[in-house]
Amino acid sequence: MSFSNLNLAPEILRAVNELGYTTPTPIQNAAIPVVLAGGDLMAMAQTGTGKTAGFTLPVLHMLASMAPAHTGRPLALVLVPTRELALQVQESVNGYGKYLKLNSMSMIGGVNINPQIKQLRGKVDILIATPGRLLDHVTQKTLDLSQVKILVLDEADRMLDMGFVRDIKKILALLPKKRQNLLFSATFSDEIKALADGLLNKPAMVEVARRNTTAEMITHKVHPVDTDKKKGLLAHLIKEYNWHQVLVFTRTKHGANKLAEYLDKNGLPALAIHGNKSQANRVSTLAKFKDGSLQVLVATDIAARGLDIVDLPHVVNFELPNVPEDYVHRIGRTGRAGQTGDAVSLVSKDEKKLQIAIERLLKKKIDEEIITGFEPNPNAPSIAHTDTTNHRNKPRSTVAINRSNSTRNANSNRGGFKR
Ligand code: AMP
User: Fold this and answer.
1) Does the beta carbon of 11 sit less than 6 angstroms from any atom of ligand 1?
2) Do domains 3-207 and 218-391 have the same CATH topology?
3) What is the distance in A from the centroid of ligand 1 to the CA of 323?
4) 3-207 architecture in CATH?
5) What's the CATH number of domain 218-391, 3.40.1110.10, 3.30.1360.20, 3.40.605.10, 3.40.50.300?
6) pLDDT of 153-182, one tens digit each?
7) Which residue's alpha carbon is nearest to atom 12 within ligand 1?
8) Residues 6+ apart with CB under 8 A from 229
9) C-alpha 49 – ligand 1 centre gap (Å)
């Protein structure tokens, strides 16, 4: 199947062609005909599958043939969970729509509202918004949603995770009853089902392979290490393997700042991105990371949601997330759009339980490798666990350990790291 079979306007095909896309991805093949036929859609697809073009291309096509928007009254509304995702979707809309006479706008928090109010006085066909700022505009009566013909809820599961359910319901109540609805979600939980039931009208269901079932693209590895040696080990790994674009996850904003400072002082250009940074700062940091001038980006989970960084080769979990599903979200940043990638986790003794929970979710053991010079001390007191003796006495057969020769020696000399 090629794009030319999808009945999209020639202006759209030209833009897609210039971007170098030759074949539609599975989600695009499945979603585009449904949207063009005017039906509602429930699509289960994660980032990296090409889902953004899956809804943007047909929405652009539909809008191009509609009567133009009145000022301040958008025809299509795309709701997204994060500011970064809003900016990325807008970038896609502008790229795919560059030969059409349609205007888009992103409406996000963290930036001055006045330029947005000014922009709304002009013609806006496609509005890409995060829920909070959109409702601010509604309160200030600077936005009129009465002409919306197409609604897209992108990454709906994350919107629910982030507590936006009430905001979404408020926004739905402001839209005209007759409209087309497209819902994209990486997971299909009961909450998503309930949201879809109330929102969609006889939707076509489309599902593409989940990223955590296509995990062959991603190599997972755990490096057991004591907490106080993690920073040194990370700097060592980046230098030793010459990693050029590394996304590192920490649990806290403070931890992200401290780690970025440490790496930077050690000759590895690094910056942190998290909720306390201004939107302008987040955008400029992300741009540096994308263009390759920033080697390491240290992020918290919330800040990293929605980051679209194509062909990201390395994701590091400096600390394992408390919620196993967040591991899947984190590593969703690597091995994207058919690329391979690796997910490396630095795991201290106190995080073993989290590792086991993640392995259960992935339905596979993660290979472990102890790095020479960073061997964990088996006698170090455990902070979180009081039953370390029992853990260490568990049979080895339950652990998939795949060590290189050099590290196997180091491990047997030092007593190793056992569960
Ligand atoms: P998404 O899942 O929408 O975040 O898209 C992931 C990446 O794949 C984006 O950087 C797109 O530019 C890229 N992409 C989307 N569709 C195609 C396609 N048909 N061929 C090649 N790359 C694509």
Assistant:
1) no
2) yes
3) 28
4) 3-Layer(aba) Sandwich (3.40)
5) 3.40.50.300
6) 999 998 998 889 999 999 999 999 999 999
7) 50
8) 374, 376
9) 7
